[in-house]
Design brief:
Helix content is 37%, strand content 13%. The chain is of the alpha/beta class. The protein has 2 domains: 204 residues, Vaccinia Virus protein VP39 (Rossmann fold); 79 residues, no CATH class. The strands form 2 sheets. The chain has a 7-stranded mixed β-sheet. A two-stranded antiparallel ribbon has the order 3-4. β6, α10 and β7 form a beta-alpha-beta unit. Pfam families: DOT1. This is Histone methylation protein DOT1-like protein.
């Protein structure tokens, strides 16, 4: 009863925001995404010129395996590419290499935003709770607005929960939401009768029996980092969460990073895409429509991996099938 009374308002405080405004990237000579913007401008210029559509498809077709959807998200009207004029030194697509286009498409996939809804998160954490030992460190790579990190800190007995997000505006929104939730938590705890403010038992939704220290220590148990997930050391993590539905092109590199850094026994959770690497064994597969709208996988890093790399994988469409869809989409514009 006490858990419901205290936790329900906190869960409610971290909801919403899926349709948040995505501000355009900064266009300046020293902007952090300048290379991405330059290639994006070159691709978009061909997209907006019907006479260039054949050339655009010719340049994109070799990279169909790393394109999320049909036409890349970065070329859609809602993309984060600025609409201001190109910088004078920006090159046309004819001067941009295939390697640069490939790298742009991989980065573009990583910028797409997506998240699980609260009812999906409730089912997810209930399903993985039997595999999670008390204590430990949960890390969400690509944490967006922070909903998964805060839900994990409330629902399971982690010692610490950390979100890693590359986009500054998403990181700031996560911090704002977290501060609001922590303020509400402090107010609720302060209103409890003194006998309840110490070691009162708190039964979490996962079934774990904790004390009120689980909530009193919440500010110390939550952290958000603005960083590239490939540059953050996750070696101490006991669970790494990946909302990887748009990470298809990134999965081989992510798998190798996690295999190299995680300790045996650590858990990794992915959505949509499998973690196909010899360092990991599947513990549970939840088909689409069971925990969430998409499939969810839970893996464990095991100790007898010999250090070999994963076999190269293709996560995308057949180039001919992709081109047929792309031509139809371009014709309908």
């Amino acid at each position: 009863m006490l858990a419901t009374q205290l936790l329900a308002p906190l869960y409610a405080a971290i909801q919403g925001g899926e349709q948040h405004q995505r501000p355009p990237l900064l266009l300046a000579p020293d902007a952090p995404f300048l290379a991405y913007i330059e290639t994006g401008y070159a691709l978009r210029a061909c997209l907006e010129d019907r006479l260039q559509h054949d050339y655009l498809l010719q340049r994109l077709r070799p990279h169909a395996s790393v394109i999320v959807g049909t036409l890349p998200a970065g070329l859609q009207p809602h993309s984060m590419l600025p609409r201001s004029p190109a910088l004078p030194h920006f090159r046309p697509l004819q001067q941009i290499s295939d390697t640069e286009i490939h790298d742009w498409l991989v980065q573009d996939a990583g910028l797409i935003y997506g998240e699980l809804q609260q009812d999906e998160l409730e089912r997810y954490f209930a399903a993985i709770a039997p595999f999670v030992a008390p204590g430990g460190l949960m890390v969400d790579l690509g944490s967006g607005l922070g909903k998964v990190v805060m839900t994990a800190a409330l629902s399971l007995p982690f010692r610490r929960c950390v979100g890693v997000e590359l986009m500054a505006y998403r990181h700031q929104l996560a911090l704002q939401r977290c501060q609001h939730m922590l303020a509400l938590n402090g107010q609720q705890l302060a209103q409890l009768p003194p006998p309840l403010q110490h070691e009162q038992t708190l039964l979490l939704p996962s079934g774990a029996s904790m004390t009120l220290a689980h909530l009193r220590d919440l500010p110390q148990r939550l952290a958000f980092i603005e960083a590239d997930m490939f540059k953050v050391d996750v070696s101490a993590a006991t669970l790494v969460f990946l909302y990887s539905t748009c990470f298809g092109p990134l999965m081989p590199a992510l798998a190798q990073k996690l295999a190299s850094e995680l300790q045996p026994g650590a858990l990794v959770s992915t959505t949509t895409y499998p973690l196909q690497h010899p360092a990991f064994r599947i513990l549970q597969h939840f088909p689409a429509g069971t925990l969430a709208w998409t499939s969810v996988n839970l893996y464990q890093r095991y100790g007898d991996w010999d250090g070999s790399a994963a076999a190269p994988l293709s996560y995308g469409a057949d180039p001919a099938e992709w081109e047929a869809r792309a031509r139809a989409e371009l014709a309908a514009r």
